[in-house]
Amino acid sequence: MTHCCLDNDDTSDMMMMIMVSLGGIMKEWIRSICFFSMWPLLMICLIALYCGKGGPENQNKPKPANQGSLKGLIPLGKNTQGHVEFRHEKSGIILIKISSDSFIMGSDKGDADEKPMHNVLVNGFFIGKYEVSNEQYKIFCDSTGHSYPKSPNFKGMDDYFLKYPDYPVANVTWEDARSFCDWAQLRLPTEAEWEMAARGNDRRKYPWGNDEPNAGGTYRCNLFGSSPFEAKLDGYQYTSPVNVFDSGISPFGCYAMAGNVWEWCADWYLADYYAWKQNADPQGPENGTDRVMRGGSWTNDGDGVRTANRDSSWPVEHMGSFGFRPAL
Ligand SMILES: [Ca+2]
Ligand SMILES: [Ca+2]
Known about the structure:
The protein is α+β, with helices and mostly antiparallel strands. It has 2 domains: 1-61; 73-323, paralog of FGE (formylglycine-generating enzyme), CATH 3.90.1580.10. 27% of the residues lie in helices and 14% in strands. It contains 7 helices and 10 strands. It has helices at 8-54, 56-59, 134-144, 160-163, 174-184, 191-199, 228-231, and strands at 73-78, 84-88, 94-98, 101-105, 118-122, 125-128, 262-268, 291-294, 310-313, 322-323. It has a 4-stranded antiparallel sheet, covered by helices on one side. It has a 4-stranded mixed sheet with strand order 9-8-7-10. The longest helix is centred in the first third of the chain and has 47 residues, at 8-54. The chain is globular, with a radius of gyration of 32 Å. The structure holds calcium ion (2 copies). Residues 131, 256-257, 259-261, 263, 295 line the site of one calcium ion. One calcium ion (CA) binds at residues 131, 256-257, 259-261, 263, 295.
């Protein structure tokens, strides 16, 4: 007997085949959708990653204080202490690279604000080999319209700012120093960076070691001593050129980190700041009234030019003994 139509089993088989075919098509379709919709998702992830890790939004953000950059620095080779020096293209300033290290900051034999001695880790940075000179500061003033510093009252050195280009700029405020650094795309060193650059990690008293500034009759820095007569014995009544006193350089090769002019640092000053025991790249208190100055000047005695010695002044104060050196 011939069947004019399919029986129930055939219908089920047919339905099954249709279902299987449809299932296969659906799977391929879903697979295609997943494949093509994955690319936009992947692109979104890549864009998000780019923006988060250094895309345009972050390129304008300042780098962390102590992350020295090689951009705009021309390597000059190693100095006699084995540290690499660079010429900063924009300002012409010579910077010395100081690698990340820890050192003992402060002195238990010094003034109350130098205690307690404490271990500090400083990230790698660059610091000026010399104090900023009149010549370098004049380029900044002429480029920006910033006023020339008032001539300090140095007898016999009239027109100090214009006639003594290789001497340190003096009579500058902390605000002046910061403006110079902003223009040069540099910055002031932190107090910790300054002290590490001045003494290294062997707890020395002065940049050159532990001998007194005039031990053996050789002067290692420009200071005042105990009288106007003694002040001249190092060869200079007031300031000296920034690149003399080879015997007084720091373990990294920096000149005049003892004496000549006081050097403004970035930090607010707080007498008991060391008691806070900030051990990792300290940046100073968040606010204050005075800014830190370090190193002593041509107006100080031997005690005043010790590397651990701390002083401070109002950020708008200027004197013939105030100068600075930049960092990066
Ligand atoms: Ca002197
Ligand atoms: Ca100095």
